[in-house]
Amino acid sequence: MIAGYHANMADGASERLSRLTMEHGLKPLAITVCFVLVALLWTFPLQHVIAYPFVFLFFGAIMGSAWFGGLVAGFIAVAFSSILIAYFFVPPLFSFSIAKESQSFVAAFIACAIAITAVSSSRKRAESAILQARDELEAKVQERTAELMRSNREIQESERQLRLLTEAIPQQIWRADAGGRIEHCNHHLRDYTGRKMADLARESFFQVLHPEDSPLYLQGWQAALTTGGRFEVEARVCGADGIYRWFLVRSIPQRSEDGKIARWYGIHIDIEEQHRAQQNLILAQDDLSRLSRTMSMAEMAASIAHELNQPLTAVVTHAYACREWLQGKPANIEKASATAEKIVQESTRAGVVVSRVRALFRKEAQVRELTSMNRLIQEMARLMRDEAIRRDVFIRLELANDLPQLEMDPVQIQQVILNLAMNGMDAMMQVARPRELIIQTKKYSDGGILIAVKDHGSGIASEIAARMFEPFFSTKPQGTGMGLAICRSIIEAHDGRLWAENSVRGGAILQFTLRAQS
Amino acid sequence: MTGNSIGALDARETVFIVDDDESIREGLSNLLEAVGVNAKCYSTAEGFSAHWSDAMAGCLLLDARLPGIGGVEFQERLRKSRTKIPIIFMTAHGTSRWYAK
């Protein structure tokens, strides 16, 4: 093993040695010999043509040797050429000795030859250096290019991964430019809306929003775009099947280094289920409060009935007795007149009960506040929004903008409008869609306001029209029959008028007026 | 209801009226008097009990809702003490549940 190792080492050294010899000894020598011999062979025939000793081909040989073989080869060529010239071409011919008169010629030749060698080899070195530098540069460029391609591939891969992630997340995601134009959205959003990316990128994105929600959405989005704040809104978005679902739309801006907004990232979260649950809860609460209201009303009615029943029963009994006293034979006038007195007393007592009940209701302090009717209606329309959606009714407000503010009890008036609107929506339950309920305000004579609630149900039958404002009159199985009666008494307490008519275009118009205060 | 038809009652027999409302009591006793029937009024069941003896005869006009002992409860007591007197219930709050009782 050891012997082998040494042997290998010796082999390696000798190989290197032979390569060095090849590189710096044999190769320049061979090149020099070739060049100089070629020059010699050509100089023999040419010297007979030219009068002076012709040595210029040797310069070429020296130049070539120095160029291809390097400085060493150049000097060998100089020495070799000088010897050959001295022997063959400088007198005395065929002798290495040099005649005195030719010594300066040979010296000049040698000087020129050395200079050529120096210049040629240095030029060669410079060119090799340039070539080497170029090669190195090229290698470096190639290396860089490869690096760039690799990092490009990596970026592409990570982008692909990110895209896969955005596609895989079970939410609808989009990205918009600084101006809010959608640049990219994942397939969930495309699939849900059934629209192509190109459609969603244009203004028509807003077409997938419910017409009632798009103003609020646009307003919020514009505000976010100008202030650069985060954007969050709940809106209904139309699915490919034409059905709207509630979504929570959230977006945050991404800023570039100079603080300007570069783009927006947004997400649509489906909150239909939560919304429905919340709505059901509100409805249940509403039902509950309505029930408790009805209960307390029923209890109050029972106690009023009992209070009235006692004196009325007494009146009837006394009246029977009075008849008996008068029909007796003979008639007992004295007893009859005492009984009649009792009847008067008991009737008076019944009257007192009635006026006490009325006083009870009048006891509530009257509220009068200067109120903007339009704002009241807008506020109420917002409160009714969910109920309207549930019933598939679109509430349209047609509000005159030149209305005076009037003194009223805003809560009571809101109750009236709510009641009329609910009745209107009830009336349209059996009507085909689209169901539209119009709440209209306009100026009325002497600085008053007319408020009209229009539905397009089947209108009001004449036998109902006559009785619809009576207490306890209802056409609904669950109705108390008090709604419109209370509405009318509220409006009358406001010095206004409430009435109903059928619209020439079908449906009913319930309207009331409120007067300006004198 | 004429004086003659009810006049067939025994003169010793009395209609006992138990009601907490004075106007009801007055009206009924006036009517009974007009048709020639003896009537006695009590505002509570306890008042009637204090006055009652087995020697008496007649019937009881009983308000179903009374302060203190209620009408139905009082009927139960009379049944237990083997007092034999017909009872006519009066009520302003007639409910099917009450009739079932």
Descriptive notes:
Chain A is α+β, with helices and mostly antiparallel strands. Chain A is 59% helix and 16% strand. Chain A has four domains: 2-131, no CATH class; 169-270, PAS domain (Beta-Lactamase), CATH 3.30.450.20; 276-362, Helix Hairpins (Orthogonal Bundle), CATH 1.10.287; 369-514, Histidine kinase-like ATPase, C-terminal domain (Heat Shock Protein 90), CATH 3.30.565.10. Chain A has 13 helices and twelve strands. In chain A, the strands form three sheets. Chain A has a five-stranded antiparallel β-sheet, sandwiched between helices. In chain A, strands 7-9-10-12-11 form a five-stranded mixed β-sheet. A two-stranded antiparallel sheet of chain A has the order 6-8. Chain B has one domain (3-100): 3-Layer(aba) Sandwich (Rossmann fold), CATH 3.40.50.2300. Chain B has helices at residues 3-6, 22-34, 45-51, 71-80, 96-100; strands at 14-18, 38-42, 58-63, 87-90. Chain B has a four-stranded parallel β-sheet with strand order 2-1-3-4. Classes of the chains: A alpha+beta (518), B alpha/beta (101). The A-B interface holds A 306, 309-311, 313-318, 320-322, 324-325, 327-328, 332, 335, 339, 342, 346, 349 and B 1-3, 21, 23-24, 26-28, 30-31, 33-35, 92-93.
Write the layout of secondary structure elements.
The complex is a heterodimer of chains A (518) and B (101).
Chain A: H1 2-46, H2 56-69, H3 71-88, H4 103-168, E1 172-177, E2 182-185, H5 187-193, H6 197-201, H7 214-227, E3 231-238, E4 244-255, E5 261-270, H8 272-327, H9 333-362, E6 369-371, H10 373-390, E7 393-399, E8 406-408, H11 410-427, E9 435-444, E10 448-454, H12 462-465, H13 483-493, E11 497-502, E12 508-514
Parallel strand pairs in A: 7-9
Antiparallel strand pairs in A: 1-2, 1-5, 3-4, 4-5, 6-8, 9-10, 10-12, 11-12
Helix pairs in contact in A: 1-2, 1-3, 2-3, 2-4, 3-4, 8-9, 10-11, 11-13
Chain B: H1 3-6, E1 14-18, H2 22-34, E2 38-42, H3 45-51, E3 58-63, H4 71-80, E4 87-90, H5 96-100
Parallel strand pairs in B: 1-2, 1-3, 3-4
